[in-house]
Amino acid sequence: MKNGTGCIVRNPLPMSYDGQTLPATTFQTGDTISIAGKELTVMDTLDGYESNISIGNAGFENGVQVIVTDAVYADLTNDSTYNEMYPTLKENVDRETFDNFVESLCAENPGSYSISYENADKQMAESFAQTQMLAWGLILFVGLIGILNIINTVYTNIHTRVNEIGMQRAIGMSVSSLYKTFLWEGVYYGLIASGIGAAAGYICTIFVEAAQTGSLGIVSIPLIPILEAAVISVLACLIATCVPLWQISKMEIVRAIENVE
Q1: End-to-end CA distance of the chain, in Å?
Q2: Is 219 helix (H, G, I), strand (E, B) or coil?
């Protein structure tokens, strides 16, 4: 392609009439074609609408399309007209005048259209920001549900054991030992919850990466998010443990023993 001796050919689409396929020219990779007295080697072929390479498609006919470099195109057709332009704005340029010029240029050339990379970048940035906001909202919502679930489990577990706590205090357990016992239990709850959450989150990460790349595979473990989630889970368990323990420690031992939930 670069030295001007090769080309890519798009074969015409197959057409049929009354059940019979109409004859059409078809080239294969490795064939040699001659255009304007110049021989070119077919390096590859494209078939179907999805491989149609052209600008605008105005006046397109179902024939053989030959794709070559700019220099070869000008040599074969004696035409150096560009079908595609990449104008770049200079500093302090009148943007409105430039946009009007581009719009009028496209209007004078049927099948032409303009694309602003600046506007495309802005739209992509806005779309990414909206997606990021929705993702963070979903993360916070799921995280809040998880924290409330942890707090509810720990809080309920302690309140259903008020009678047991009263018995332990009656046989001589101090308030500090009581706190240590249940705080360690809260830590265990938090670590177990973190382990289960980390495993589930990693599986979700694998599926999200597979949806993005189109192939299922092992991805790197997000250690920092996992550690952050573990710390939050343990803190939630400790807070959920301290509040009911503080209330129960203020109760009289006899009342705690007689308490039945």
Answers
A1: 84
A2: coil
At 190, the amino acid letter reads G
Q: Answer yes or no: do 217 and 159 share one domain.
A: yes
Q: What's the one-letter identity of residue 170?
A: A
**Crossing angle (nearest 10°) for helices 223-249 and 117-159:** 30
Task: Write out the residue range of the structural domain in which residue 72 sits.
Answer: 6-77
Decide if pLDDT at 85 tops 80. Answer: no
What is the tally of structural domains in the chain? 2
Best CA proximity match to 226, nearest among 203, 195, 190: 195
Q: Are 65 and 54 in contact (CB under 8 A)?
A: yes
List, for residues 153-167, the tens digit of each pLDDT value.
777 777 777 777 777
Structure tokens at 18: 């009354």
User: Which residues does 216 contact at the CB level (< 8 Å), separation at least 6?
Assistant: 206, 207, 210
Q: Is the pTM of this model over 0.70?
A: no
